[in-house]
Write a structure and sequence with these properties.
The chain has 515 residues and is α/β, with parallel strands linked by helices. It is built from 14 helices and 17 strands. An eight-stranded parallel barrel has the order 1-2-3-6-7-8-9-10, surrounded by five helices. The protein has a four-stranded antiparallel sheet with strand order 14-13-16-17, with no helix packed on it. Helix 2 packs parallel to helix 4 and helix 6 packs parallel to helix 8.
Length: 515
């Protein structure tokens, strides 16, 4: 009888016991120190959001950009999205469009003394082991209604039939074939003439909807949309055509150049489309006519970088739900999550007032094997160290250097290992020298090197990023380690990397004792 009562008691207690056990089980541990991770930041030039200071002289512009890159390097950032074409204008010399007004204060005005901001940014980023992705806004032609201040050479003046006005600004009409061809040529100017690591586009395709306004493209639809019954389907196809053209053109001109897009965070809500996310917000598919899911499915982009600017467990658009949705719809392309550094400490959203919100987002991303990194908007917000978040990147989440993830569909052949490594002590420093490797079977030249350092009897492990001393984006075959200490023994290993950061086998280990 006692056994029976005990059995009955256990039956009633079991659900509670199971619940208690479930509550004490720790969540899966996130990967604290990944060796490969995309760690990006947007540097916005439109309206001088991040750079440069309005009407700053050239010397100050250069110093400001160096300071920005230095700070991000110290934080652990390994890629910058540098805005080079905010509104059918240019932050680079080799352009068919006029100089941006956000450079010297007036559209068409060249910097004096003359320099190339994009070329300068590329050089300085690469010195610091950062990729530079040239960021284009494809369809925005002006950012305000001051049309009289536009350069006479601005495309809105030379081809006025290509544009419609919406929200008080001029926008390219994506439905006109010549517009798409023009945008491709504009971007190829940079592809062909600059050593960028990627071409990056933001979320502005068809305009964000404004109540009471309509897109004036009925005439273009009548002329070019005969294959479509619904103008909305035609608009989505117009954007698809541009993305497909760009993908083909970029990879034809430079097969190893990355092409990525940063759409708004919601593709479609589940109440709109059964394949959408469990969210309630503006969707790229229905409101902006941008079918970002299709771009990954067709393999037109190398990475997708959705702007998931809501907190974890948000009622309308939860960060975690959207990360999960995008990770289920990447079709083996890279997924970098756009994170809202600019919203940290925002008063109207309680979650962003908590210092743990953004670190928890990073942990959530790292728990998902189909997420390869993140990009923060924007540079100034990150530099301001809101709620100490940037410090936490520097000391915890990005404390060790990381290589960008590889894109095996673009290049899967690693370089050969460096040869004849020699380490000598010179003036209290360890001078490491080596010879370039024999060319790999794809004949691609070496793009850079990774220098690893181990102390004493440490295990030689190049999979652990704590052992990375420097990631070097140059073909120089020497490195001076001035951080060594007297009386200690250090071992060095060198690997080679190619343009897409495929890594070679390691060189033999060379050790030295500092007298």
């Amino acid at each position: 009888m006692h056994i029976y009562r005990l059995f009955i008691t256990l039956i009633f207690l079991l659900p509670g016991l199971q619940k208690a056990v479930a509550q004490t089980v720790a969540p899966p541990k996130y990967k604290a120190d990944p060796k490969r991770e995309f760690r990006g930041v947007w540097i916005a030039t439109v309206e001088n959001i991040d750079w440069p200071t309005p009407k700053a002289p050239v010397s100050l512009q250069k110093q400001q950009l160096i300071n920005i890159l230095n700070a991000h390097q110290q934080t652990g950032i390994n890629a910058v999205m540098f805005q080079v074409r905010p509104a059918a204008d240019a932050f680079y010399i080799k352009s068919r469009e006029p100089w941006s007004k956000w450079l010297m204060g007036r559209q068409g005005q060249a910097p004096d003394p003359l320099y190339d901001p994009l070329e300068f940014a590329i050089t300085e980023a690469h010195k610091r082991g950062m990729e530079l992705h040239a960021w284009f806004n494809p369809y925005r032609a002006t950012n305000d209604g001051k049309f009289a201040a536009l350069s006479s050479q601005h495309i809105t003046n030379t081809k006025p039939e290509w544009f419609f006005i919406y929200g008080g600004i001029k926008l390219f009409n994506p439905g006109i074939p010549e517009v798409r061809e023009y945008i491709v040529r504009v971007i190829l100017d940079v592809v062909d003439n600059y050593d960028v690591d990627g071409i990056h586009m933001d979320d502005y395709f068809y305009p964000y909807q404004i109540a009471g306004q309509h897109i004036n493209d009925a005439e273009a639809f009548k002329k070019y949309g005969s294959d479509f019954e619904d103008i909305r389907d035609w608009r989505r196809n117009n954007v698809d055509l541009l993305i497909h053209m760009l993908s083909d053109s970029i990879h034809k001109h430079k097969p190893r150049l990355k092409f990525g897009i940063s759409p708004a965070g919601i593709w479609a809500n589940k109440y709109q489309n059964p394949q959408g996310s469990d969210t309630h917000g503006l969707s790229t598919y229905y409101e902006l006519f941008a079918d970002a899911r299709n771009w990954t499915k067709e393999g037109w982009v190398d990475y997708i970088n959705p702007q998931i600017y809501w907190p974890i467990n948000d009622r309308s658009a939860a960060f975690n739900k959207l990360v999960d949705w995008w990770s289920d719809n990447t079709y083996n392309r890279h997924l970098y999550i756009g994170q809202a550094a600019y919203r940290i400490n925002e008063r109207k959203v309680n979650a962003f007032k908590h210092p743990e919100e953004m670190p928890d987002e990073i942990k959530y991303l790292r728990n998902n094997l189909r997420v390869q990194g993140s990009v923060f908007f924007s540079s100034t917000s990150l530099l301001n160290n809101p709620l100490g978040f940037t410090d936490s990147l520097k000391t915890t989440y990005y404390r060790h250097a990381a290589l960008p993830p590889v894109m095996l569909w673009l290049d899967s052949v690693p370089p050969n290992a460096p040869r004849n490594v020699v380490v000598q002590v010179q003036n209290g420093a360890a001078q490491v020298k080596w010879q370039a490797p024999v060319l790999a079977r794809d004949n691609e030249p070496v793009y850079g090197y990774v220098i690893y350092r181990f102390e004493g009897t440490d295990k030689i492990d190049i999979d652990d990023p704590k052992n990375i001393l420097r990631i070097q984006y140059s073909d120089a075959t020497d490195y001076k380690d001035s951080t060594v200490q007297k009386g200690r023994t250090y071992s060095y290993v060198i690997t080679a990397i190619d343009r897409l950061k495929n890594e070679s086998d390691r060189s033999p280990t060379m050790a030295v004792t500092i007298p």
